[in-house]
């Protein structure tokens, strides 16, 4: 298996390549957990922005499961202040995403680059494909916001 190069990592990271390369180094020095404030604040939307579609789907399903369990056990109905419960769960979920965000992004990056390298592309194809699959995109975020809006409308009858 071919080694992932610094240039490939930085090309994949796109904006803030130095920041993420430093996180990659920390991960490989045995310090994989660093806090990502943007993942804490924006949650699933940060993962979508970084093109982490599988991770976003898992987060979405976990949040759906969390809500279903709260409903099934009647926790929402019997909470003295449902808004407090929302805030506490939001902080817990945000903290988990903030703590795991960089680590999951590093692992996502490595998986993507290894998959690209398996096709033995030419150097030009390699660079183009790494840049295409890496970096950021606002389009998935907008789609995610649309799905969230539709979900709210469908579940609340608004």
List keywords for this structure.
9 helices; mainly alpha; elongated; 158 residues
Describe this structure in words.
The model has no long low-confidence stretch (mean pLDDT 92). With 158 residues, the protein is an all-alpha fold. It has nine helices and no strands. It starts with 5 loop residues before the first helix and ends with a helix. The relative contact order is 0.17.
What is Rg?
A: 18 Å
Q: Give start-end ranges of low-pLDDT stretches.
A: none
Helical residues, percent: over 70%
Biggest sheet overview: none
Give the strand content.
under 5%
Quaternary form: single chain
The structural domain count equals: 1
Distance between the termini: 53 Å
User: What would you call the shape?
Assistant: elongated
Count of individual beta strands = 0
Short description:
With 158 residues, the protein is mostly helical.
SSE inventory with pairings:
Layout (H helix, E strand, L loop, with lengths): L5 H8 L3 H12 L8 H6 L1 H6 L3 H20 L2 H4 L3 H36 L5 H11 L5 H18 L2
Helix pairs in contact: 1-2, 1-8, 7-8
């Amino acid at each position: 298996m071919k080694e992932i190069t610094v240039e490939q990592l930085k090309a994949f990271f796109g904006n803030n390549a130095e920041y993420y390369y430093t996180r990659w180094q920390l991960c490989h020095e045995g310090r994989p957990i660093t806090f990502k404030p943007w993942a804490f604040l924006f949650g699933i939307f940060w993962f979508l922005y970084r093109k982490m579609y599988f991770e976003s789907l898992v987060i979405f399903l976990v949040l759906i499961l969390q809500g279903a369990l709260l409903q099934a056990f009647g926790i929402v109905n019997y909470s003295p202040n449902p808004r407090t419960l929302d805030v506490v769960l939001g902080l817990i979920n945000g903290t988990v995403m903030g703590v795991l965000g960089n680590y999951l992004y590093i692992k996502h990056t490595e998986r993507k680059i290894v998959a690209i390298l398996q096709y033995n592309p030419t150097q030009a194809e390699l660079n183009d494909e790494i840049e295409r699959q890496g970096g950021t995109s606002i389009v998935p975020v907008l789609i995610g916001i649309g799905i969230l809006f539709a979900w709210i409308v469908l579940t609340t009858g608004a």
